């Protein structure tokens, strides 16, 4: 069990534009129901999307890899199965409560490889790692939540080994109005009403504004290439509702 020292922040109601501290409080608040609501609201599909993201990362046996914005650890556990006992996985997040869920998930400690995961608390915009130290990085539903996305991509580039990949899974900010309409209808009429049963309507309403303020797949590719990545490709998945950027350093 990892121990963390954290300065907890008071909980805020989530205004449209929220600060780092308010986002931290949001993810602390949703941590008790986060996994179950993801399973329920995506009909379990998010697990398929996460497996795709990990495959695209290129993580292999013996690799040293990072799951950035790991939350409750879904991708970190999948990465540990890729890199095996000779590998190393760091699950990194700024939410103390999400990390407590990750480090105590009994359902996911059945495999020996799950024990290799190290859970670290910190800010994705200021990574405490040396240059070129990771063979692969995943970011599952994290980038959209970062207040400075270009800075995050620069940090990811800095700590990746040359020739290695980052795989960034998130909601897709679609160029198609019909896809955006479906996404927003689902959030308004399914996601938020279900979340309101747990007193988390405002936290899940945030999804809509965060997607509206996100980057399109093409913009994500351009940001990666401008940062210095040699290749960048954004794949639309889940019928265009989700997207995955794969960028090679
Ligand atoms: C795993 C998923 C979302 C994770 C997630 C990301 C965030 O940034 C949040 C911010 C605030 C609160 C919660 C989250 C959060 O859970 C994706 C699946 C779970 C979604 C909550 C479900 C969204 C519904 C889709 C718009 C449509 C799903 C269609 C499916 C094929 C039935
Ligand atoms: C929607 S959750 C995704 C969790 C997990 N990757 C998954 O796929 O389910 C977003 C996570 O990003 C974390 N996060 C948001 N901003 C962060 C930051 N600046 N530094 C570190 N973690 C951050 C939150 O605490 C939260 O656990």
TrEMBL record:
GO terms for cellular component: chloroplast. InterPro entries: MenG (IPR032904), SAM-dependent_MTases_sf (IPR029063), UbiE/COQ5_MeTrFase (IPR004033), UbiE/COQ5_MeTrFase_CS (IPR023576). It is found in: Plastid, Chloroplast. Its EC number is 2.1.1.329. Pfam families: Ubie_methyltran (PF01209). This is 2-phytyl-1,4-beta-naphthoquinone methyltransferase, chloroplastic. It comes from Coptis chinensis. GO terms for molecular function: 2-phytyl-1,4-naphthoquinone methyltransferase activity. Keywords: Chloroplast, Methyltransferase, Plastid, S-adenosyl-L-methionine, Transferase. Signal peptide: none annotated. Involved in the biosynthesis of phylloquinone (vitamin K1). Methyltransferase required for the conversion of 2-phytyl-1,4-beta-naphthoquinol to phylloquinol. Belongs to the class I-like SAM-binding methyltransferase superfamily. MenG/UbiE family. One of its GO terms (biological process) is phylloquinone biosynthetic process. PROSITE patterns: SAM_MT_UBIE (PS51608), UBIE_1 (PS01183). It catalyses: demethylphylloquinol + S-adenosyl-L-methionine = phylloquinol + S-adenosyl-L-homocysteine + H(+). It comes from the Eukaryota.
